[in-house]
Each structure stands twice: as C-alpha cells, then as structure tokens.
Please model this.
Amino acid sequence: MAKKEFQAESKRLLDLMIHSIYTHHEIFLRELISNASDATDKLYYSAMQEGRTGVTRDSLPIRITLDKEARKLTISDNGCGMTAEEMEENLGTIAHSGSLAFKQQMDAKDKNDVDIIGQFGVGFYAAFMVAKTVEVISRSEKTDECNRWVSDGADGYSIAPCQRDTVGTDIILTIKDNAENENFDEYLEPFRIQAIVRKYSDYIRYPIQMEMPRTRMKEGCDPEKPEYEDYTELTTLNSMVPIWKKSKSELKDEDYNAFYKSKYYDFTDPVRHIHMSTEGAVTFHALLFIPASAPFNYYTKDYEKGLQLYSNGVLIMERCADLLPDHFNFVRGLVDSADLSLNISREMLQHDRHLKLIANNLEKKIKSELLSLLKNDREKYEEFFKSFGMQLKYGTYVEYGTHKELLQDLLLYMSSTENKMVTLEEYVSRMKEDQKFIYYACGESAAKISLLPQMERLRDKGYEVLYMTDSIDEFCVKMMQKFQDKEFKSITDGDLGLESEEEKQEIEKLSADNKTLLDDLKTALGDKVTRVQLTSRLKSHPCCLSTEGAVSLEMEKVLKAQRMGNEPEVKAERVLELNATHPIFQKLCALSGDQDKLKTYADILYTQAQLIEGIAPEDPVAYANAVCSLLSE
Ligand code: ADP
Ligand code: MG
Model:
C-alpha cells in the first residue's frame, strides 16, 4: 500500500493546526462529532429526497467507544460515508471541505432541515492533537465500497480497501502517550468524555451514545450483606434539542426559567428572558436572561462578562465578551449563529463583522426589553435596578458619556414628592410651568437629604427633587448635563433660579448695605470660602453652604475617599450663604466692628453649615471651645 504525502501547504497547515489554532486539546472531540453529525445529516437529507421510510434521527446514533488497554477512542456514525476518492479529496487536502460543497449544492428550501456545521475543512486534523495514529474506515452510501485511510501525522497517509458491515464511518484514534506536561490518558476515561460531549456537543441533533460504567447490587445476594458488581449501560450523552431553536409558542416561562437556573447556577428566576431569532444581514438565535440579583462577585474584578457562543448548536466559546457592552454585562445567555466558523480564534472573533452586527442587535434589544419591563412590570424592574442600577449609572458616566442617550431612560432615582423611585421622563413630565431645572440633591440617605436647609424653599415651591445617594450619581449627572433639554441643578448650587426679580433686587440692595459686614466675615474665614453672601433661598435656617465651579461638596467627598497617596486634594469652592431674614443675621449686624466676636460667629456658622452637609469639622476642639465660650457668656 503506497503512502501518499500530504500536499506541501497541507503539511504546513497541519503543523499550524496541531500547535496553534486550537487552545484546548479537548475540542478534537467536538470537531469529530460535528463531522459525524454532518455526515449523518447528509444521509438523512438524501433519505428524505428519495422518500425512504423508516429513517429517523433517533435511528442514526453517533457511537463513542473506548478501549483503555489499546489506547483507542472510536467515533462511529451511520452517515453517508466516503468513497476512496472522497477520502483523498477531503482528508488528504487540508482546507478542503466536502461539507461546504454539499451545502452549496443543497436546495435553499431544504436548508432548514439540515444543519451542516463544517465549511472550512480543517476540523478533522484536530484529531492529531491527541492521537499518534488516525484511522478512518468508511463505507460510502453511494457506491457501497469500503476503504481504510490511515495516517500518523505529518508524513502522509495511505488508503486501502477493507470491510464494514453498514454504511457509515469509524474514526479510530490511537491516543498519544502522556507527555511531561500533558495528560492524554484522560481521553480514555468515560466520565471525562461524557463531560466534553456535554460541554461542546450537547445540542447535536443525533443521539451521541457511549457505554457508561455503572454499579449495581448483585442479583440474589443477601440484602443484609450486599455485594456489588460493575456493568456498563449504553447511555445517550447529549440533550439534543437546543431550547433556543424551538419556537416561542412551544415554550412556557417555566421552561425558560428552568433552563436558566440549571445552566447558569442561579436559584432565582430571571426577571426577564429574551428569545430572538433574526435573519438578514446576519442570521442568529439568541437566548438572553436578565438576572434578578447580582452574582456574589459581580461588583469585583473577578466577574467576567460574556455570552456563550455557538455555531449551529456546537459550542465555540464559553464566554464571548465581545457580544456584550460593559453597561449590560449582567446579561447571561447565549448566541447561536451558523454564520460563524467553529475554528475561529479569539483574536479573529474580535474583528469579525458578523459578531459586531450581532452585538449591536443585542444591545438594542436588551435596551428595549428593559424599557418594556420598566413600563409593564415596575416592581420587577425596581428589583432589577436594585441589583444592577449602579452598572447602568456607571455606563452612563464612562467614556465621556458616549452611552448616555442609550442608558438615561433606564435610570431611577428616589423622588422627594413621590416618595418612590421615578424615571427622568416622569420627573420632566411633572415639572411645574415656571420650573427651569431638574433639581437633585446628594447625600448619604434620602432621610438625611430631606433635612437639608436648601430643601425648604424647593418644598414650598412644590418642586420635585431627586435624591441621589450613590457616590457615582453626581458624576453621572454632570455627564448627562441635560435630560430632554432640561438642565440638571444641584440644590447646593449657587444660583437655583428660584428668586423672582423683586427678590433678587431686594437681596442686591441688602448686600450693598451690608458690604462691610460681608467683607469682614470673608476675611475672618480666609480661604475656607470664596465668598460670603446673602440669600433668599433659606427659610428657617440661618445659613448654608453652596458651591461654585465643577466640583460639588458630594463630589469632593467621593474624590477624597478615592484619593491615593500624595495626589493633591480636590476641594469644592465653598460659598457661605446667610439668611437675611434670620435673627442671627441681625445679631451679626450688631457685632459689626468687633472683629474677634465676628470671627467666632463666622467660624461657628461655617462649621455648622459643613456639619449639615455631612462634613466633619477640621478642628472639632476649636469648634467646641467656640460654642462653649458663647454658652458661658
Ligand atoms: P469541515 O467539517 O469544515 O468540512 P473537516 O476537516 O472537519 O472540515 O472535514 C473535512 C471533510 O471530510 C468534510 O467536509 C467531509 O466531507 C469529510 N468527512 C470528515 N468526517 C467525515 C465523516 N465522519 N463521514 C463522512 N465524511 C467526513
Ligand atoms: Mg468539520
């Protein structure tokens, strides 16, 4: 039997295949099972064409046999088989795919019945990653001739006639001996093989069967002194029908939830499932889930986003990160597309046009499903938002607000007037006629914010205020700037746009009259404040702090907490505002000229205003002493 050499290019390709295309050895099994499934599909297809009866998918199993002693792993199928010529063509030339040719010849209308996986003509060679010798015994359905193809890798192959009882193919691998860092014995272990089949080939449409080891009590033995024996049982390893390829009308919520919980190890039902199938520029099925609660490591750097990626029911990648944008990284699920190749590498995937199209489609769909959840099942949405709202806010903020248009409709904030979580759209739709801004206030909790002195006037006006209690909130708002053309305004901002013209003039006049006093107070406080001014925004409180410039008091706190080592401290520019109608102001006027007393008063008022904002005094002892000296007067 003459040995033939692989073609020159094939030799080089083979080397590449074995050493670099695949990152995991175990996928050789996925490739060989996919080929067996393709061959079975081809036979099934011609049986349908010819109207042969009695051919069902269940009657065409793919069988795996292990022989530990002889180090042999065999994959047998009842598919179309190959003639000697086809063996030469398909197995002798790398990158020649008989399956692609078959698919191209098939009628368009039949494509739905047959799920041919192969198209690149390289998968078969993955066998050489784990096998020292590969033997292919095949009997062709067309000619009934039977041939044996053998190769031990790089130096070529030979083909000779042989015997096989039925039409189909056996791929017999002689598994390599263990090497220093590589364990090949595992490919002779039934449980390991079972796990690999379940991982990659669970949704192959034909039963994949193997004799599995079992134990049972010996027949007729004394139950008091039980004796056990080992036996094997022919077992179907794969579950065959992928739920995402079923039609939606066949499936109930429970089916989706059960699939989600078993596949993604969650105890709670997801708040939403998204089942989509699209055809057109790119054809794919997707089954996505929005979990109700965050996994324990969600907000740590250990969490990896991504969806499972399948090509025609065969797993390509466990977590394909490129399918999900970071702001939707909580979504679990999978994508199945026949437009993607099994043999594609991670690097190639990143630049794959189909993958980008799919990712864009998914992003839009996730957004619209979240909006629909928000509209139709508010309670569930709020549950979702509790777990993942932070991620949406973060997504709105990062990359200079690139994604704000997409995400801002999905945000919720506590409302001062509604006492519940509201959307920005709801806020704007309720705004008073004369109201210019979307007011918000930051702080530790809604309860604490509601006590801020600045809240009084807004409350009197009947304006709604959004309470922001997450540290990211104000950064996110600064990035949004506006929502539906309405500017955001912090209630600690200098100018809240609340005063009427009259009020403004009145304050201006009062300020001019008391210029010396205000200047003296500013001098007393030094660079703690940029200004001291009179205000009409306060009602029962004597004073408050507001800020000018980009950094607010809340942002100052967040930045301070995140500050590292000797980074310069970022300070908000403070303005001390005094309530001109408060008795304390009269007292200050009376002290005019007594610089020492004024300084004590100024320090106390400033420190109190800071305390109300949740900022600890820089020198608590000095503050306590100042208060005590006043008390003991
Ligand atoms: P692909 O599956 O992408 O076409 P492979 O390298 O996996 O490439 O296989 C090459 C070709 O060998 C297949 O297209 C098919 O024509 C043939 N082939 C492989 N395995 C079998 C099999 N079990 N039965 C029949 N033909 C097979
Ligand atoms: Mg293949």
